Amino acid sequence: MTSGVAAAAALPVGRAYRERRSMVTAMLLLPTTLWFLLLLLMPLVVILVFSFGERAPAGGYQPAFTFAQYLNLPARLKAFQNTLTLAPIGTVLCVLIAYPLAYYLAVKAGPRSKTLLLTLVIVPFWTSFLIRTYAWIFILGGKGIPALLAWIGLPEIRLINTPFAVLVGIVYGYLPLMVFPIYVSLEKLDKRLLEASADLGATPIGTFRQVTLPLSMPGLITGSLLVFIYLMGEYLIPALLGGGKVFFVGNALVDLFLQSRNWPFGSAVAIGLVVIMLIAIALYMRALGRERVRSDVSLV
Amino acid sequence: MRIYAAAVYAFLYSPIALIVLFSFNAGRSGTQFLCCSLDWYPRTFGNVLMVEALINTLIIAGTTATLATVFGTMAALGLQRVSRLARLTYDVLIYVAIIIPGIVIGIATLVALVNLFGIVNPLLAVLLPGGDGPPPLQLGMGLGSVIAAHTLFTMALVIVIVRARISGMDRSLIEASADLYATPWRTFVQITLPQLLPAVLSGFLLSFTFSFDDFVIAFFVAGPITTLPIYLFSAIRRGVTPEINVIATVVMTVSLTLLVIVQQLLQRQRRPQPAKA
Fold this sequence. Notes:
Structural class of chain A: mainly alpha
Number of domains of chain B: 1
Strand content of chain B: under 5%
Distance between the termini of chain B: 50 Å
Helix content of chain A: over 70%
CATH superfamily of chain A: MetI-like
Number of strands of chain B: 0
Number of helices of chain B: 11
CATH class of chain B: Mainly Alpha
Structural class of chain B: mainly alpha
Oligomer: heterodimer
Largest sheet of chain A: 2 strands, antiparallel
Radius of gyration of chain A: 25 Å
Largest interface: A-B, 84 and 86 residues
Number of helices of chain A: 12
Shape of chain B: globular
Strand content of chain A: under 5%
Helix content of chain B: over 70%
Order of helices and strands of chain A: HEEHHHHHHHHHHH
Radius of gyration of chain B: 23 Å
Number of domains of chain A: 1
Distance between the termini of chain A: 35 Å
């Protein structure tokens, strides 16, 4: 693969030209390389080193080589447990709610209303996440739905600061991110396959299971990976809707770095989060890899 | 099916509608609605702290988007001309930058910069002694560190977007230009850049929105300064006020405008570009 500019290589090429060309390439990549080194690799290496260190008496870091921080990870078990249950549940809820909508948009909606409806899905995603989450403090808070329920005579229940509130925030925040990739893969699906399946006597459910679902798998995978990745590092939703009762690893990290200033332990928690996230993604991809092979076979 | 879709749209939009409605609240409390006044708009924009946070955020988002777009586009072009191995290395870094949670990027950058400044600042104090007063040049957290951290992941996004565009580009025009003895620079300005423009512009607007909206990274690396999301977050923590609803409404209007522009640009990009002489 050569660049377009390299088409000039058809002209007589000298050493000077080649040297100049590689100079230009280096200049083009210089800022990005600098950024990756200074603001990606260096910070990651620093927290990796810190995670083997000790907390200085006044907070911060003191050089050492110990696994104590990692052995101490169970101290934040609750945060990991919450993250590892609510993130997958949230992802699944997003899939369940997003799929029918994406299906409607891709298969049932008329061509004219489709563009508008699709834009309407994306719009909330581009409005401030903080504000959208804040709206639910309003709705689920004491003077929102619970007050409404009390008014019509139902028992008053507490909604805010529960796992339910956090899940509502998750679905509300990430639904658009899930709808879009599923829509794209359903849109590409050849609608004649659906007719063929029906003509061959498949029930609507059979058609869905054997044709629609397998063919929309790529979008489903992309969407759920995106949502899952975001959820693993989530901070705002539990902070605003979980009210200190339902907290994620992200909240534990804020606490460790900004309040108790225990940098080495915080670093270990951060590294732990990234490692768990990568393992979860790898397992998911492997499970799906097998699944996809099977569906390919059944399609043949 | 239709009813289901309508229900989902209601779910998506009623909270937003509620906020906009409450921004016109005439009452003092944030939770009871008295129709209707614009009182809270001038009052909100008369708040010095809020305006300062807004200005900081605009400076950060503008600079981030500019740097990310220029550097990201440069890198996307540069990556066309390097070996397969080098390209693979950059690919890994790009995806790491995108995949690592913002909160981890935030804390890692905080810790790394604090330590870097701890090394650099004494050196600066020796090189540029300030006499009796404090040394004239010392690095610290602030606008610069937020911009630097935001530029990292927005740059990765711009690279992905622009590269997608490059791979869909018509090469014959570039070859023709070279055959007609245009210099590489001239070919770039007259042929490559116009073709890349929609992707570059949408990269710019996406970076701007991301940076404008980011709370979690700024929360760690902003040091003494306040950005609008940080201001909003602490305001929300203090309790619901009509002021928050006003800021929310204004912010949503601005992001909506940007979104419409991005949509238009992307739509144009999907259509084949008419070749201009």
